[in-house]
């Protein structure tokens, strides 16, 4: 059996870490988490000691490091095949949806960074609202075509990739459709997410610049 160690950033702020962590929890493979406080003196050196990418998450598999959330997801999917839809067409669509999140939606990343302890109803920038509407409409369309409660019927890697986005809708009061609101509630009531959220609410570390966004 592989020895797995997942290096993550802070629970409250590290969206990519949350994705990888939840996917690993869904596999039920044993692993240990090592959390590294972000934006403190020396933190980048610690990350570069783990991998040349110098980012989190990073998964150490028997000494070999996978330094990317999507690559970690693919590693997990090989170990536990049901993390992607079984239907070939749905599998391809889920892959495309995940890739869209992996590389896109720059405005919502910038203007509404993940901050699980945050609750605000402040006015959000227009480009952020445009992307929020695009995401909500995409969720609506997928949920309308499938039986749900998840994007491709059963829970998949796609839902893990949109979980941190769902938290942004809550944190910043972003508008969404009724169906998308139900989906957000479904994602945020997941027991693994609630385990992560509880850790976020108890950790002492703060990122002042992130907390100041649209405050």
Rounded Rg: 17 Å
The whole-number mean of residue pLDDT values reads 95
Strand fraction: 5-15%
Major sheet: 4 strands, mixed
The domain tally reads 2
Overall CATH class of the largest domain: Mainly Alpha
Specify the CATH architecture of the largest domain: Up-down Bundle
The beta-strand count equals: 4
Structural class: alpha+beta
Q: CATH fold name of the largest domain, please? A: Glutathione S-transferase Yfyf (Class Pi), Chain A, domain 2
Order of strands across the biggest sheet? 2-1-3-4
- Contiguous runs where pLDDT drops below 50 for at least 5 residues: none
Tell me, what's the shape?
A: globular
- What is the CA–CA distance across the termini? 47 Å
Helix content: 40-55%
Helices, by number, come to: 10
Q: What is the chain-wise order of helices and strands?
A: EHEHEEHHHHHHHH
Overall description:
With about 220 residues, the chain is an alpha+beta fold. The chain has two domains: about 80 residues, Glutaredoxin (3-Layer(aba) Sandwich), CATH 3.40.30; about 120 residues, Glutathione S-transferase Yfyf (Class Pi), Chain A, domain 2. Helix content is about 55%, strand content about 5%. The protein has ten helices and four strands; from the N terminus they run βαβαββαααααααα. Strands 2-1-3-4 form a four-stranded mixed beta sheet. A hairpin with a 2-residue loop joins strand 3 and strand 4. Helix 1 crosses helix 7, helix 4 packs across helix 7 and helix 7 crosses helix 8. The longest helix has 20 residues. The chain starts with a strand and ends with a helix.
């Amino acid at each position: 059996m592989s020895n797995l160690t997942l290096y993550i950033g802070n629970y409250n702020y590290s969206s990519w870490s949350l994705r990888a962590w939840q996917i690993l929890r869904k596999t039920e493979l044993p692993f240990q988490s090592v959390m590294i406080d972000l934006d403190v003196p020396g933190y980048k050196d610690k990350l570069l000691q783990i991998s040349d990418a110098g980012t989190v998450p990073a998964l150490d598999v028997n000494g070999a490091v996978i330094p990317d959330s999507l690559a970690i997801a693919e590693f997990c999917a090989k170990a536990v095949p049901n993390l992607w839809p079984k239907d070939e067409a749905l599998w391809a669509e889920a892959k495309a949806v995940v890739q869209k999140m992996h590389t896109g939606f720059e405005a919502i990343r910038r203007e509404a960074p993940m901050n699980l302890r945050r609750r605000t109803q402040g006015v959000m920038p227009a480009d952020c609202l445009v992307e929020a509407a695009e995401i909500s409409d995409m969720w609506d369309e997928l949920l309308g075509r499938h039986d749900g409660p998840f994007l491709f019927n059963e829970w998949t890697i796609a839902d893990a990739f949109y979980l941190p986005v769902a938290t942004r809708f809550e944190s910043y009061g972003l508008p969404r459709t009724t169906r998308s609101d139900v989906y957000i509630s479904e994602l945020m009531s997941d027991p693994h997410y609630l385990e992560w959220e509880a850790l976020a609410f108890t950790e002492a570390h703060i990122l002042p610049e992130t907390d100041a966004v649209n405050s």
